């Protein structure tokens, strides 16, 4: 049996383990270790199991992952983000679907202090959905808005997906952040337009608020956003101005979030304990998956099966547009069953060479892939953001109702994805301009 055949057999074995619901990190490490053992012997396999994880985990960029996670958890547990939705609500209440629009802007603001769409959905779901329910908003619109708005958390920096992609693809994370910021802003605008059009055409979805909010109340609501605005300006002002690196930005954000929480009299021992514990647990789970993907990359290189798959796909002579369409369909399908980081780490060792040989910018693909993966967070049957919203809202709201609500936003997302393929400069313009 040739080395390429061995590699292909182990890839099939990996797919079988995933279908059996084995955790992705464990499946990646197990298959890669056994594959290297079969190719090179057990001494090389054991050596790889020690050396490759060390070299991957020692990458300096990865140190920003726990720092940004801690920043987001402190903001959440110290309740620094509560003023975001209230400020958006009082300023936008007069718009068609004003509370839903406020939810989208609240998600956008919260996204700037967390790199997780799940955290974004959970935080805003507890605040925004009850408020919309109180004003008789359609349950599908209310829950679908927050579930979809949560996906902005992985687009607007800091994004955990982009940080891990940066390490795997050797792309500057700062440029990924810039491209993601543009797509995040476009997504906020598109979601807002969708809500306003739907409510204008069908006012029963969201009764118009008739109460007039005094100017002094609006200004007071803006003052309540100072904790998050301070962190955003401090971290990303320094990052995009070049004052410090993306890695240093994570540390600055972690310290700044604690200082702001102290100034706001919201930092408690319990908040610190929960933030630290959740940071350790989340970082550990991410690193297990990332280390497994790094081992898989080495195994595919040793066996030659990764190059064989890439050459076979490119050998069909398909147009680059057809290739990116095929890759998009694969990720949309994977998103129905796998969480985003697992899906990305599972496939990048094979997909990255294909993207590079097809002539696409790897920087562009990193942001484009993030958008695709976030659509998977809404896709049935296992749309993670949908299940998160289900867990924090009224038990009378069914999963079917939430899925019905997110379908509208998924349609908008697909339009955005098509625009990103047709006009790559949407992503590349800002990184090239500032870079």
Largest sheet: none
Order of helices and strands: HHHHHHHHHHHHHHHHHHHHH
Q: Which regions have little confidence, pLDDT < 50, spanning 5+ residues?
A: none
Strand content: under 5%
* Count of DSSP-assigned helices: 21
Gross morphology: globular
Rg result: 22 Å
How many domain modules?
2
Summary tags:
globular, 435 residues, 77% helix, 21 helices, mainly alpha
How is this fold's topology laid out?
Blueprint: H1 3-19, H2 24-40, H3 42-57, H4 64-77, H5 82-92, H6 98-111, H7 117-134, H8 139-150, H9 160-169, H10 173-201, H11 215-223, H12 226-240, H13 246-263, H14 269-303, H15 305-315, H16 320-334, H17 340-357, H18 362-376, H19 384-392, H20 399-422, H21 425-434
Helix pairs in contact: 1-2, 1-14, 2-3, 2-14, 3-14, 4-13, 4-14, 5-6, 5-11, 6-7, 6-8, 6-10, 7-8, 7-19, 8-19, 8-20, 9-10, 9-17, 9-18, 10-18, 10-20, 10-21, 12-13, 14-17, 15-17, 16-17, 16-18, 17-18, 18-20, 19-20
